[in-house]
């Protein structure tokens, strides 16, 4: 069952049709395990974390650089948040009470944005005109890390900012 649970945690990100096809191929014994995991087994988040779909989220109570936020998340066996759907974007936007770090960055290659966990950027909710790397103004330095603006609508509240700016962050891990 533990191996099934690990496998099922991946199903959160799959097309439901793929899950049905998998069940049909691997037989009904798996159906009972899936039923147990989805409906009977308790899935929860640690105290202070909030569950959304298959992930747990934590809004930090402290502030620091992007690197400090990432390390804090890793210390909690999590990663800075990765947003991969509009629904998750709306949820995460509602969590933040101030500007907060995302796992988004273009540290390796300017203009090539990816998530801290290495996944490619598939959805984009940039504030109009962003990312702009401070319009190349040297007094602001490189803006290589992504954050959420607090007081803007969810479908356009990402901005690029210097990674040493001091913000809160949001951690994410599987439930």
TrEMBL record:
Q: Signal sequence span per UniProt?
A: none
Q: Which Gene3D superfamilies match?
A: Mannose-Binding Protein A, subunit A
Q: Which species expresses this protein natively?
A: Mastacembelus armatus (zig-zag eel)
Q: Identify the domain of life.
A: Eukaryota
Record's SUPFAM superfamilies? C-type lectin-like
* Residue stretches spanning the membrane: 20-41
Q: Which UniProt keywords apply?
A: Disulfide bond, Lectin, Membrane, Transmembrane, Transmembrane helix
Protein name as annotated: C-type lectin domain-containing protein
Which residue numbers delimit the C-type lectin domain? 52-172
This entry's Gene Ontology molecular function terms read: carbohydrate binding
């Amino acid at each position: 069952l533990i191996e099934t649970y690990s496998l099922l945690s991946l199903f959160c990100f799959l097309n439901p049709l793929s899950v049905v096809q998998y069940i049909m191929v691997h037989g009904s014994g798996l159906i009972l395990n899936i039923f147990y995991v989805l409906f009977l087994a308790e899935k929860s988040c640690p105290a202070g974390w909030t569950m959304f779909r298959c992930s747990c989220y934590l809004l930090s109570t402290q502030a620091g650089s992007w690197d400090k936020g990432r390390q804090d998340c890793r210390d909690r066996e999590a990663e800075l948040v990765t947003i991969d759907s509009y629904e998750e974007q709306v949820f995460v936007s509602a969590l933040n009470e101030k500007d907060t770090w995302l796992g988004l960055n273009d540290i390796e290659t300017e203009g090539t944005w990816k998530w801290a966990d290495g996944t490619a950027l598939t959805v984009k909710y940039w504030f109009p005109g962003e990312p702009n790397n401070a319009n190349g103004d040297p007094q602001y330095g490189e803006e290589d890390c992504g954050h959420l603006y607090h007081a803007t609508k969810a479908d356009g509240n990402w901005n690029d900012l210097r990674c040493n700016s001091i913000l809160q962050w949001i951690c994410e891990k599987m439930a």
